[in-house]
Amino acid sequence: DAKTTQPPSMDCAEGRAANLPCNHSTISGNEYVYWYRQIHSQGPQYIIHGLKNNETNEMASLIITEDRKSSTLILPHATLRDTAVYYCIVRVDYKLSFGAGTTVTVRA
Amino acid sequence: DAGVIQSPRHEVTEMGQEVTLRCKPISGHDYLFWYRQTMMRGLELLIYFNNNVPIDDSGMPEDRFSAKMPNASFSTLKIQPSEPRDSAVYFCASSPLAGAGGELFFGEGSRLTVL
């Protein structure tokens, strides 16, 4: 699986959009971009995934660049409950290889 | 839907003892995964099953670790004998689909402490 690079941490103000970047410059054509998050002491939770096109669901939006070498997860209106570690993963099969992720702290 | 259920949630044991962690996947999910999380190594895939058959156990650290899935609704991860370095949170996850597009649903984890 392609490696991903994420900033180790970021802060966000409550109510504002949180934009989480991910670099995956070695991604191959059939690898999907997945985002999971892990709230303290809980199991990882699926957020969203995409291949080429931008995707949106009730939790977040995923913007993938045209060359697919990077992507951005957008939490449109961050709340305190969004404080978590966010993992960007590229995956072609069953294996989810989790990196260190980005620790996002939402502040009131 | 009850989600993936793991037990025990917490286990404290002494070095050398046998430890058995249990998992009940979501009904109808054909894939089951065991992950381990530590501060040093993050989340690691240990083994996964498809239709109760182990498919890839390359992540199992050593022979002291074994996993079984006797039926579609139950799996165990056993450590015998346990060592302090096995202390970690062990997560079970299930999925209705493998490959890209298959979302993994994780349980709450079993926190193991080996003294």
Overall description:
Chain A is mainly β and 108 residues long. Chain A has no helices and nine strands. The model of chain A has no long low-confidence stretch (mean pLDDT 92). In chain A, strands 1-9-8-3-4 form a five-stranded mixed beta sheet, with no helix packed on it. Chain A has a four-stranded antiparallel beta sheet with strand order 2-7-6-5, with no helix packed on it. In chain A, strand 3 and strand 4 (45-50) form a beta hairpin. Chain A has strands at residues 9-13, 18-23, 32-38, 45-50, 55-56, 61-64, 70-75, 84-91, 102-107. With 115 residues, chain B is mainly beta. Chain B has strands at 5-7, 10-13, 19-24, 31-38, 42-50, 53-56, 65-71, 74-79, 88-95, 105-106, 110-114. In chain B, the strands form two sheets. In chain B, strands 2, 4, 5, 6, 9, 10 and 11 form a seven-stranded mixed beta sheet that branches. The interface between A and B is medium-sized, with 21 and 24 residues.
Identify the most extensive interface between protein chains: A-B, 21 and 24 residues
Series of H and E elements of chain B:
EEEEEEEEEEE
Largest sheet of chain B: 7 strands, mixed
**Secondary-structure-derived class of chain A:** mainly beta
What's the gyration radius of chain A in Å?
A: 13 Å
Output mean pLDDT of chain B.
93
The count of helical stretches of chain A stands at 0
Query: What portion of the residues of chain B fall into strands of 2 or more residues?
Result: over 45%
Q: What is the makeup of the main sheet of chain A?
A: 5 strands, mixed
What share of the residues of chain A does DSSP label as strand, in percent?
A: over 45%
What is the percent of helical residues of chain B?
under 10%
Report low-confidence residues of chain A grouped into runs of 5 or more: none
Number of strands of chain B: 11
What is the arithmetic mean of pLDDT of chain A?
92
Distance between the termini of chain B: 36 Å
Shape of chain B: globular
Q: What structural class results from the helix and strand content of chain B?
A: mainly beta
Q: Give the overall form of chain A.
A: globular
Q: How many distinct beta strands of chain A? A: 9
> Could you spell the SSE succession of chain A in H and E letters?
EEEEEEEEE
